[in-house]
Write a structure and sequence with these properties.
Layout: H1 3-31, E1 42-48, E2 60-65, E3 69-73, E4 80-88, E5 96-100, E6 106-111, E7 114-115, E8 134-138, E9 146-154, E10 158-162, E11 164-168, H2 169-203, H3 211-230, H4 242-266, H5 273-291, H6 296-328, H7 331-356, H8 373-460, H9 466-488, H10 494-505, E12 515-520, H11 522-526, H12 531-552, E13 556-563, E14 568-575, H13 584-599, E15 603-609, E16 612-620
Parallel strand pairs: 12-13
Antiparallel strand pairs: 1-2, 1-4, 2-3, 3-10, 4-9, 5-8, 5-11, 6-7, 6-9, 13-14, 14-16, 15-16
């Protein structure tokens, strides 16, 4: 975004905030003035003298001040004065009343010499320290055709009488109710809301990036609440001039907190909180030094201009930062900035009105009669609450969207992993098929093929007989049967393979004089071994049975498989024949069994004597592939 666009957005936020702020002020000022009511253009004032004071002067005419108040700068030594105003009774039956816009420094009100009692207690340090409105009933028995109202006020340097209205009770009460709402009720609500929001912010865990702005907001809310409480006269017990010094110290702290908040909230922390604390320390020391000079007048003379210009400077800087913050962000930041600028404008306008007696622009007949900053504290508290809630909702929605994005990506990753696993499994199955095919080709080439090639060579050379050829063919068929058996039971357990082996070998061992014993325990039968390991095991058993059948001349043959430990199986072929007699073919068969036992990573134990032969194979259940 270009600097021109940012400038236009900042100006738009500022102008809209001023339209809303001054429009609300106009509505408020119109509501606190009775319908058809107008201020008296002037009143009579007569200073009172005490025994140790200068003699009283005669009555003087005091015109309406733009504040609007009736202001008389009294000579030194006069502490009290009587303001008087005459009005005529219209003779109507409707009850009459007196409405004072505020009551500060008004100690007594009299009608035709009789003291009037306000609807609310009249106390210098009442609600808002006397800046709250007051309504008096004018009893009918006291009213005359020509009536005299007297207001006794006090003050050292200035004698100030607030503007007032005399008229029908209903019209005045309506204006009084609006003034009470604006000047008292909303101020009390603002204090409660600001302190509540500050408490919520203080106990809420914030991220490291949010802490500076939230801490600045907490300090601003607390100091704004204390500033509102100062209008209630909570510092009345402090003797002058230190009461005024305390008031200005609180005001300086509040104004500096405005600058800290604006810089922290907008991220423009060129001047951090330490600078603001240091500036407050200097101003506090200055206030203490001025308080030690003399009375209230000296405190006011020195510190009031500092307060006015510091207010203008801090508010102007803060509004500039907030408007720039609005130009740099989206609609949510512009909403935040609009509310904050309205609140800051109230602080600046109150300070300027104290010094220059402002009126609403384009409506010169509507001077400012109440402070706007205390009421805007309610707007600040509510705005802060809605902004923090909005930010929390946006953060939650962002977290939800991130979670949804993460879930979608996780699902996509899971799908990709599943697809990769499926492809890997297919590739593994293809590799297994290929390896099994190669193994079968190798076994058939080395076993069955080698036997047939040897038989063919012997027959061509005329070295073999028909009986030899038949024996070799029978051996080749046995090997082929073992291969088929191992393949048929590839996905079954060892018990099924052993049963198929027995079924295929049983016809060859059918001899009336030979007793066969087949054994396999349940644990061994339940084991499931790879095809190649089953084939090597069955070849060893087949070779051992063939040797016993050919050479042992036994009448009992035992073939057994058992699981003799958690990790090993044991296969046994035993006969009660004549033992090994050093036959060459038997020695070749034993060598083949030893080779296959090594492929099973097992140990082959052969024991043979005149009472028989026992061949025992121990091998692990979990076998690793044989390196080739």
């Amino acid at each position: 975004m270009s600097w021109r666009a940012r400038l236009l957005i900042a100006l738009a936020v500022f102008l809209i905030s001023q339209l809303l702020f001054w429009g609300a002020l106009l509505l408020g000022e119109r509501s606190v003035v009775p319908a058809g009511g107008s201020y008296a253009t002037s009143v009579q004032m007569r200073p009172l003298a005490q025994a140790d004071e200068i003699p009283t002067i005669g009555a003087v005419e005091v015109p309406l001040h733009p504040a609007p108040v009736y202001l008389y700068r009294a000579p030194t030594g006069t502490h009290r004065a009587i303001y008087s105003h005459r009005f005529a009774d219209h003779g109507e039956d409707r009850p009459a009343a007196l409405y004072l816009s505020w009551s500060r420094r008004v100690s007594e009100v009299r009608l035709n010499g009789s003291v009037l009692t306000a609807r609310a207690p009249l106390d210098v340090w009442s609600v808002l320290g006397g800046f709250d409105p007051v309504l008096y009933d004018l009893p009918e028995d006291l009213l005359q055709p020509d009536n005299l109202l007297e207001f006794e006020v006090y003050g050292v340097a200035n004698k100030i009488l607030p503007v007032f209205f005399v008229g029908e009770l209903d019209a005045l009460f309506n204006a009084y109710a609006w003034a009470q709402l604006i000047s008292v009720d909303l101020v009390v609500a603002a204090i409660g809301v600001m302190l509540f929001v500050a408490l919520v912010c203080a106990i809420t865990p914030w991220s490291r990036s949010d802490r500076p702005r939230v801490y600045a907001l907490i300090v601003l809310l607390i100091l704004w609440s204390l500033r509102n409480l100062s209008f209630f006269g909570f510092d009345a017990g402090i003797p002058p001039p230190w009461r005024q010094v305390t008031h200005y110290q609180l005001t300086f702290a509040f104004l500096l907190s405005l600058g800290w908040f604006a810089s922290a909230w907008t991220g423009q922390t060129r001047v951090g909180w330490r600078w603001h604390v240091g500036a407050f320390a200097l101003l506090a020391l200055l206030a203490i030094a001025v308080g030690g000079i003399g009375g209230n007048v000296e405190v006011f003379r020195w510190l009031f201009p500092i307060e006015s210009w510091l207010s203008f400077a801090m508010v102007a800087i803060a509004i500039a930062q907030i408007c720039d913050y609005a130009a740099r962000g989206g609609w949510s930041q512009r909403y935040e900035s609009l509310l904050f600028v309205i609140c800051l404008s109230a602080v600046g306008v109150d300070a300027l009105d104290d010094r220059y007696d402002l009126s609403i622009p384009l409506f010169g007949g509507w001077p400012l009669t109440f402070y706007a900053a205390p009421v805007c504290g309610l707007l600040l508290g509510l705005a802060s609450c809605t902004i923090l809630v909005g930010q929390s909702q946006r953060a939650r929605r962002m977290l939800e969207s991130l979670n949804e994005l993460l879930d979608s990506r996780l699902q996509a990753q899971e799908a990709a992993l599943a697809e990769g696993h499926r492809r890997e499994q297919e590739a593994a199955e293809q590799r297994a098929v290929l390896e099994e095919r190669q193994r079968l080709m190798r076994d058939m080439h080395d076993g069955l093929g080698g036997q047939l090639v040897a038989l063919s060579a012997r027959l061509r050379g005329g070295l073999g007989t028909r009986q030899d050829a038949a024996a070799e063919v029978e051996r080749a068929l046995d090997d082929l049967r073992l291969i088929v058996t191992s393949l048929d039971r590839a996905d079954e357990n060892l018990g099924s393979a052993f049963g198929a082996f027995r079924e295929r070998l049983q016809p060859r061992l059918a001899d009336p004089e030979l007793e066969l014993e087949w054994q396999i325990d349940e644990r061994a039968a339940a084991q499931q071994l790879p095809v190649e390991r089953v084939l090597n095991l069955l070849r060893i058993l087949s070779e051992a049975c063939a040797n016993a059948l050919k050479h042992a001349q036994a009448n009992h043959l035992k073939v057994a498989i058992e699981q003799h430990s958690q990790t090993h199986l044991r296969a046994v072929v035993a006969d009660n024949g004549r033992g090994m007699q050093g036959d060459g073919s038997a020695g070749k068969g034993l060598a083949n069994m030893g080779l296959r036992a090594r492929k099973l990573r097992g140990t082959l134990d052969i024991q043979s004597d005149s009472s028989g032969t026992r061949i025992q194979l121990d091998f692990p259940i979990d076998g690793r592939p044989e390196a080739r």
